[in-house]
Amino acid sequence: MLTLVQPKKTRGRLGKVLPPGAVREQEISGCDSESDEEARLEMLLDEEADNDLDRKILGYSRRYDIQTGLLNYPAFQVALAAQLKRDPAAREVALIWIDLVNLRREFTLWGWAGAEALARRVAGALRSVADADALLGRIGGRSFLVAMRAGKSDKDGRRRIQSIMDALLPLRVHGSEMKPEVAAGVAFFPSDSESVEDLVRFASLAATRAGYVKSHAVVAFHAGMNSLIMRDHLLEVEMRKGLEQGQFSLVYQPKVDLATGQVLGAEALIRWNHPGWGPVTPTEFIPIAERSDLIHRIFDYSLRAALEQTRRWNGLGLSLPVIAVNASAVNVRRNDFARSVRSILGEIPIAPAQLELEMTESMAFEDEDLFAARVRQLKAIGVCIAIDDFGTRYTGFNVLKRVPLNAMKIDQCFIRGIDRSKDMRALCQTIVAMARQLKLRTVAEGIEERGELEAMRLIGCDAGQGYLFQKPVPAEEFSAFLREWPERMRSFGFADGREPQAIDPL
What does the DSSP assignment read for 44-93? Predict the structure, then answer.
């Protein structure tokens, strides 16, 4: 048996400090002096170290993660292989991969101290809730490993696995709350594989999938994940090519004043037409772009293209009061986001007030302080801000009150069939009243039927957007829409001054 004991806190010529209390005494059992596993561990030592102290420090750092005191991947792999080798038929083991997805963001916000505190909090939580005989490890900068007794059909085991995720509580850094944001996957020995390397890879695939679907639950590996991950990888590769080869374009959908029928502006929406696959929907490629730097390239492209097109419309006498561009939460979290927007506005002669950035409600819900800071930075430039998809998450009145927004877009799930639902009409009426209290314009998204239009006009919603008026179309078709709309809007009763039709009570 090989026992690795943490040395006392000291500094050698290597210049590394071992954190006091970072690890408890850890055993890697089942490795005798003649085993391959122990030989692999012993090879990690630097035999050329100057003295015994340096050897101890090197030995510790090569087996353990200095920051958290958990086993590093080589030691974890050896220890797990030894455990499984001793009696593989008598045990089922769950291998859990946990990605700390917000570690880089917290490092950007709070520096090394913040990232270190977050990583140690996760390690401490794992120690506190994992089984006594569980193996704990860290792989790379942001990933953690747990190997514990549990079977694929073991309900108690699955409960214990999920309890690990539930134990990751927030901590405070410089007076601000920081919560570990994790994505976790699990693979089982021997049902998924009898190979340690495959178990780790499969658990990693499942964690990647958990990140894709933003699941707080631990996602179990299944064989189809290989193809899903490969498909997403292929989409990312093709997206990069598409951005370089001009496969992306914008389409435009009008926002119409529900009182006068005037076009108040347009929303620019990104589209991807792949030469081999044909159109790829935003719901397919945006989540993948958000997990890479591609979402920033997509935003920059969208903003430049929308502003350039608006400038051309201005020159043709088809000026739009406002052009709206969507900003992902990933875009908004970027430290230089406001500076980047200002720079692009400086390249194109468009008044900042003619630009509106739409940010999803989830951004305000997930990080109130950062959301408020970004809005204030953008407002200082002169840009208008709308909160998109309102009602899909719970955003408190106090949050909205302290952020200088311009508009609130009511999600289409509240608009669909509103003329046939008394409860939905009451809910939308409350939303509109709240927006008025906050001095925000309201925009109803997804109006597709005449009854929905009449209901939102009766409620007093300021503007509407949807297929009833115009589906999203390329710039040339939108130009034609702008020319034809003064005549077309009469068919909706805007020009004759009539009051909206009453909706029959249900």
Answer: TS-TT-SSHHHHHHHHHHHHB-TTT--EEHHHHHHHHHHHHHH-GGG--E
Average pLDDT, the chain: 81
Q: Is the dihedral of CA 339, 344, 347, 352 positive or negative?
A: negative
Residue 280: left (phi > 0), alpha (psi -120 to 50), or beta? beta
- Strand pairing of 219-220 and 182-189? parallel
Other residues' Cβ atoms within 10 Å of the Cβ of residue 434: 16
C-alpha to C-alpha distance for 324 and 303, rounded to whole angstroms = 9
- Tens-place pLDDT, residues 156-205: 888 888 888 888 777 666 666 667 788 899 999 988 888 898 899 899 98
In 65-189 the beta strands, taken as DSSP E runs, fall at 71-72, 93-100, 135-139, 143-149, 171-173, 176-178, 182-189
DSSP state of 199: H
| Contact present, 93 and 84 (Cβ < 8 Å) | yes
Question: Would you mind telling me the total number of residues written for the chain in this entry?
Answer: 506
Pairing of the two strands 463-464 and 26-28: unpaired
Does position 38 have pLDDT exceeding 90, yes or no? no
Answer yes or no: are the C-beta atoms of 344 and 303 closer than 8 Å.
yes
Rounded Cα gap, residues 463 and 260, in angstroms: 10
Nearest-angstrom CA–CA distance, 406 and 384: 6
Looking at residue 393, its amino acid is R
Q: Which residue do the tokens 């692009």 mark?
A: 344
Instruction: Give the position of tokens 């959301």.
Output: 371
Tell which residue, 264, 199, 255, 202, has the closest CA to residue 228: 202
How far apart are alpha carbons 31 and 104 in whole angstroms?
A: 37
Helix or strand or coil: residue 225?
A: helix
Backbone angles phi, psi at 385, to 5 degrees: -130, 130
pLDDT for 41 beyond 80: no
pLDDT band at 394 (very low <50, low <70, confident <90, very high): low
3-state secondary structure of 25: coil
pLDDT above 90 for 26? no
